[in-house]
Specification:
The structure is a homodimer. The first copy, chain A, has 3 domains: 16-239 and 406-457, Bira Bifunctional Protein, Domain 2 (BirA Bifunctional Protein, domain 2, 2-Layer Sandwich); 256-373, Alpha-Beta Complex (YbaK protein), CATH 3.90.960.10; 475-566, Rossmann fold, CATH 3.40.50.800. By secondary structure, chain A is of the alpha+beta class. In chain A, 26% of the residues lie in helices and 28% in strands. A 5-stranded mixed barrel of chain A has the order 9-10-20-11-12. In chain A, strands 27-26-28-29-30 form a 5-stranded mixed β-sheet, sandwiched between helices. The two termini of chain A are 23 Å apart. At the A-B interface, strand 1, strand 2, helix 2, strand 3 and strand 4 of A face strand 1, strand 2, helix 2, strand 3 and strand 4 of B.
Chain lengths: 567, 567
C-alpha cells in the first residue's frame, strides 16, 4: 500500500488528554482514533495489527480443537439470572437498555452464561463431550475510569474460550493444553520471555486460577516471582514470609498501657511510642459467616482477605461495621487489639507476628494502646500462626526461602476452572454411560486481544515510536523513496512491485515530504524493516536497509536484500 | 472437519415461535442459535458462511480502493447532535445507556456521523481526497418487532462504506464503480439474476438513491420492474400511470349531493352510490411548510407522500390533524373534497383523475358527498394533473407505456449520495487548490451481511433443507460414510484426507447414524457436493457423487471425482 492511499496521517502530538503511552503512540502513528474515553476506532493500520494478533490466537486455539463461533452482544436478563449476575450490585459494569416493550436488555461484558445457555441445547450425552468453543467478541464494560488507552477500555475485543468436559481428569488435560497454547501465542507475538503464568485468585471451586502476566510499566498488576524458577504469583495470592526484623529487642520490658484519646493508625502510634512499625500490630474485625473474627497482622502489613477466607474456610467474609466494632469491643474503632479481647471472638494471627518482642496492640478501650506486649506473658500465644498478610517488597517465598522478584505487569490472559459450580447454577448436565445425569466440568479461557496490542505498543517502542515484530506488524517493509525525479520514482516503483512479488507486504512512502520527515514517520509507524531508494542507492545499484530495532543501516544488493527478508 | 467434532446437531423441528423460513432452516441445520427475538449467535457452520460472504464483499470493496477499518459500537451524544440524529424522536431505534457519571451513550445503529467525525481529523486538503473507507460492523437497532429471522435483527452485521470526494464529478465516478462492485458481490453469491438496482427515495440533496433488491418471498419490499429492461423502482418511488378504466360513462349525468351522516371511506361510499371505486376520489389535507394542500387521488389509490412532496418542493410535509381539517373545511374528517373547497387551499390532483366522468367527491360538509361530478361543469379542472399516487398492481410505467412486473423483494444493499448536505451539517470541509474551503461530497454504501445470508437461506433451499452455492458454503463437500466396519472406515478416512490434499474443505459425517438420517442431514445442512463411501462403492472401486441441487447420483472413479470438484 502507498502512504498516499492511506487516509491516516502521522502527528507530532497526541491529544492532550491522552495520558497512556500506548494510546499516545498509536494515535500519533495513525493506528487508532479515540471516539471517547476508553473507546477507540481502529484505522486500516490498526485493524491490520489486530487481525494479525487474532490470526495467531485463532491458529493456536484451532490447534487444540477449538471451534470458532460468534455470540451476540445483546443479552437477556433470564440468561444471567441463574447465577445472580444480572444484578448491578453483583456485576457493576453492565451497560443496560430497554426494548420498546420495556424489556430490559444488557450488552455483554462476558459471555459465560450465554454460551452455557446455547451449549445446553446441543450437549446432552457423554458422547457429545469434550468440546471447546471460542470467539473473538467485542465486550462492553461500564468502567468507572478509562485512562489506560487500549489496555483497559469500555469497549474492547476479547478472545474467550469455553471448555466442557465429562470429568475433572478430562478437564485438567484440556486446561494444561490451553496453558501451552496460550504461551505459544505470547511467544509468537514476542512477549514469551516477559510473560509469566501466575497463580491468581480462584473461586468457590478451586484454590487458584491462572493468569498470564506480562511485564509492562503501564500494567495495573504486580506479580511476585521466585527468582530461581519461572513460578510467579499475583500479589493478592502470593504466599509470603516476612524477612527477619534486625532490630528486635532481646529483653522483655514491662507492659504499659498508653492513654492517648484520638491516637489511631499504626503510623501515628509507632511515632508516639517511638518504636518501629514492625513492632506495632493491626487488628481488623470481620464477620465470617456467623462468627466474629479478629485478624492480626504486623503493623507494616495489610490483611489479605483471600488468604484469611481460606484459613477460615468461610463462604462470606465481610469487614465489621463501626457499630459492630463498638458492640464487640466496647471501644471506638481504632483501638481493637489482643489485650482485653472479648470472649467469643476467634483470633487469627499472621506469622510475621510470632517473633515479636515488646510489641504494641490495641487494648479494646477507647484511647488505650498497650505497649511492650509479649506472647504468653501478656496475651495468649496462638497454637498456630497463619499467613494472612498481603505480600510486599522484600518478602520471601516460604517454600523456597527465596526473596521474591516483583514485577509490574499487565494481565494478558486468564484461565479459570469452574469445576461443576457453574453447571450446577445453570443446570447444565449430560447423561453418562450408565444413563445417570452428571454435571459438566467447565473452564473459561480469555485473552484480551486489544489489550495485548496495547501491551505490544507499550513494550515494543522507544522515544521515536513503535517497533512491531514481523508477526504482528501491519506491513513487513517500509519503503522510503528519497527524491521525486523520474528515475528515482521508477526505481522505487520497481522495487515496490518486486517486494510484493516475493509475497512481502509493503507500505510505500511515495509522498513528497522531506527525507527527515519520512524517516521520522518510518520510526513512528514502526514497520520492522525499512528500505531506502534514492539517487545515491541507484548509482550504487544497491539498497539501504535498516531494521527498526537497529541503529545502523546497511547497503545491500538485491540478492542480499531478498535473503534478509525471506529467510 | 468431522461431524463428531462439531458440537451442533441437526434438529427435525425449529423452535415453535420461529416463523421465518430462513431462521427455521438455519436453526434446524445448526447454523444459528436464537438468543432472543432478532438476536442470533452464529455457530461454527454459520460463522463460516458469514466469513465467506464477508470475504467476497471485502475483495470487491478492496478492488475499488476501499480501506477497511473498524469503528466502535459505543457512541457519544455530541457526535450525533450536529445532524439532530441523537434525538429519539428523529431516530427511534437507538439503544442508549449511561456511563457511571451519568453521561448518555448510544450503541451504533449507523456509523455515518462517527466516521465523518473521525475523517475530519485526517482529511483537510484536496490532496487527501478522494478516499473511501469501509467496515464490517455489528449494528444495534431497537426494532419494535423482529420476526424475519436473520433478515431483520436487533443486532446484525453490516458492511458500510463511505466515500469522500472533492466534487460531484469525482463522487459520481466512485458511485458508479460502487454499483458495479455491488453487482459483482451479488453475482458471486449467486443472486445476480434476481437482484435489481432500483431507484429508491432520495433525500434533500438527490431525487433518488439506489437500492439493491433481491427477489425473495420473505422480503419486506416490493419493486416495480419495466419488463423490457432491467430498470426497476421501489414501490414508494415508482412513477405510475393508471391503466384505462373500461367502464367509464360517456354521458354526463346531473350532479347530486348525497346526505349520508357517518358515511366515510371510499369503499362504503362506492357501495352506497352503486358506482365502482374507480369513480370515487379521495382528498387528503396536508400542511406543506406553511401552506394548506389538498391532495386528490382516485378512490382506489393512496397518496404517495414522497411524490407529493416533490411536486410541492416542500421541506416539511405533514398530514393535517383532525382539528386542522375541521378548521379548514368546517366539516368533520371524512368529507373533504373538491366541491366547496375553501379558498386558500392549494389543490393537487393525481393524473388518474383526469379522465373521470360522473365521479364522486366530498362536499366539505359533514355528512355530504357529491356524486356525478364532472370537470369544469361542477369543479375547476386543474391546468396540470400530477402523478402523486402510490403505484399498484396493473400500473404502467409512463415513459415506456409498459405494465410493470411487480416482485416481492428484500433490500440487500443501498447506496446514497449525500452531496454536500451532511458535510455542511457536520462542517466537514477541505482546502482546494486555490486555498478556499469547500465542502466534501459524501456517499454512503451499505450491504446487510447477515441479511444477505438470510436471503440466501430463503432463496437457496427446498423442502429438504438448505442449498448453498460453492462460494458461500461452509464446506464444499459433505462426505457420508455408510457402514462402520473397518474397511469402510479406512476407505472413507482415506478419501477425507485425499479431498483435503486437493485443497477442498470437507464436512465428514463419521457418525453411526442410519443411512437415511445421514442423507437427511446432508440435505438439511446443504453442502453443495455429497460423496458417499460404502461397501458397495468400495467393491466397485468408485464413489457415489451427487450435487445438492440435483436429484440423481452418479458413480464416479477417483479421477472423474477430482475433475468434478477441481474444475
Amino acid at each position: 500500500m502507498k502512504t498516499s492511499e492511506l487516509f491516516t496521517r502521522t502527528a507530532r502530538q497526541a491529544p492532550a488528554e491522552e495520558v497512556s503511552k500506548n494510546a499516545q503512540l498509536l494515535i500519533r502513528a495513525g493506528y487508532v482514533y479515540k471516539m471517547m474515553a476508553g473507546v477507540y476506532a481502529y484505522t486500516p493500520l490498526g485493524l491490520r495489527v489486530l487481525e494479525n494478533i487474532k490470526q495467531i490466537v485463532r491458529e493456536e486455539m484451532n490447534a487444540i480443537g477449538g471451534q470458532e463461533l460468534i455470540m451476540s452482544s445483546l443479552q437477556k436478563k433470564e440468561t444471567w439470572d441463574a447465577t445472580g449476575r444480572w444484578d448491578d450490585e453483583v456485576v457493576d459494569i453492565w451497560f443496560k437498555s430497554k426494548l420498546k416493550d420495556g424489556t430490559e436488555v444488557g450488552f455483554a461484558w462476558s459471555h459465560e452464561e450465554a454460551i452455557i445457555e446455547m451449549l445446553k441445547t446441543y450437549l446432552t450425552s457423554y458422547k457429545d463431550l469434550p468440546i471447546n468453543v471460542y470467539q473473538f467478541q467485542t465486550k462492553m464494560r461500564n468502567e468507572l475510569r478509562a485512562k489506560s488507552g487500549i489496555m483497559r477500555g469500555r469497549e474492547f475485543i476479547m478472545k474467550d474460550m469455553y471448555s466442557c468436559s465429562i470429568n475433572a481428569e478430562q478437564h485438567e488435560a484440556f486446561y494444561q493444553s490451553s496453558i501451552d497454547a496460550y504461551m505459544r501465542v505470547f511467544n509468537r507475538v514476542g512477549l514469551g520471555d516477559v510473560t509469566y503464568v501466575t497463580f491468581a485468585s480462584g473461586g468457590a471451586f478451586t484454590q487458584y486460577s491462572h493468569e498470564f502476566q506480562t511485564i509492562c510499566e503501564a500494567g495495573e498488576d504486580k506479580i511476585y516471582q521466585i527468582p530461581s524458577s519461572g513460578q510467579a504469583f499475583n500479589e493478592e495470592v502470593a504466599p509470603s514470609r516476612a524477612p527477619a526484623f534486625a532490630d528486635m529487642p532481646t529483653e522483655q520490658e514491662d507492659m504499659n498501657v498508653v492513654e492517648a484519646e484520638g491516637l489511631t493508625g499504626v503510623g501515628a502510634i509507632a511515632e508516639r511510642l517511638a518504636i518501629p512499625r514492625e513492632r506495632t500490630t493491626k487488628t481488623m474485625l470481620y464477620l465470617a459467616d456467623d462468627e466474629m473474627v479478629a485478624a492480626v497482622v504486623r503493623g507494616d502489613y495489610a490483611v489479605n482477605v483471600d488468604k484469611l477466607r481460606a484459613v477460615l474456610d468461610a463462604q462470606k467474609l465481610q469487614l465489621a461495621s463501626e457499630d459492630n466494632i463498638r458492640d464487640i469491643t466496647g471501644a471506638e474503632p481504632g483501638y481493637a487489639g489482643l489485650v482485653n479481647m472479648p470472649e467469643g471472638v476467634r483470633v487469627i494471627v499472621d506469622d510475621a507476628c510470632e517473633p515479636l518482642v515488646n510489641f504494641e496492640t490495641g487494648a479494646n478501650k477507647t484511647g488505650q494502646h498497650a505497649a511492650n506486649i509479649n506472647w504468653d506473658r501478656d496475651v495468649t500465644k496462638p497454637d498456630t500462626f497463619h499467613d494472612i498478610k498481603m505480600a510486599k517488597k522484600g518478602d520471601i517465598h516460604p517454600e523456597t526461602g527465596e526473596v521474591y522478584t516483583i514485577h509490574k505487569t499487565a494481565e494478558v490472559g486468564n484461565i479459570f476452572n469452574f469445576g461443576t459450580q457453574k453447571s450446577k447454577d445453570t443446570n447444565f448436565s449430560y447423561t453418562d454411560e450408565q444413563g445417570e445425569l452428571q454435571y459438566v466440568h467447565l473452564g473459561s479461557y480469555g485473552i484480551g486481544v486489544t489489550r495485548l496490542m496495547g501491551v505490544l505498543a507499550e513494550n515494543f517502542s522507544d522515544e521515536k515510536g513503535l517497533r512491531w515484530s514481523d508477526e504482528v506488524a501491519p506491513f513487513r517493509v517500509y519503503l522510503v523513496r528519497i527524491g521525486n525525479d523520474e528515475e528515482t520514482i521508477s526505481a522505487a516503483d520497481t522495487l515496490y512491485a518486486k517486494l510484493q512479488s516475493w509475497g512481502i507486504e509493503v507500505l510505500y512512502d511515495d509522498s513528497e515530504k522531506r527525507p527527515g520527515e519520512k524517516f521520522a514517520d518510518a520510526d513512528l509507524i514502526g514497520i520492522p524493516h525499512r528500505i531506502v531508494v534514492s539517487p545515491k542507492t541507484i548509482a550504487e545499484e544497491k539498497y539501504e536497509y535498516k531494521k527498526r530495532t537497529e541503529d545502523e543501516a546497511e547497503i545491500l544488493d538485491i540478492e542480499s536484500l531478498k535473503s534478509r527478508l525471506t529467510q
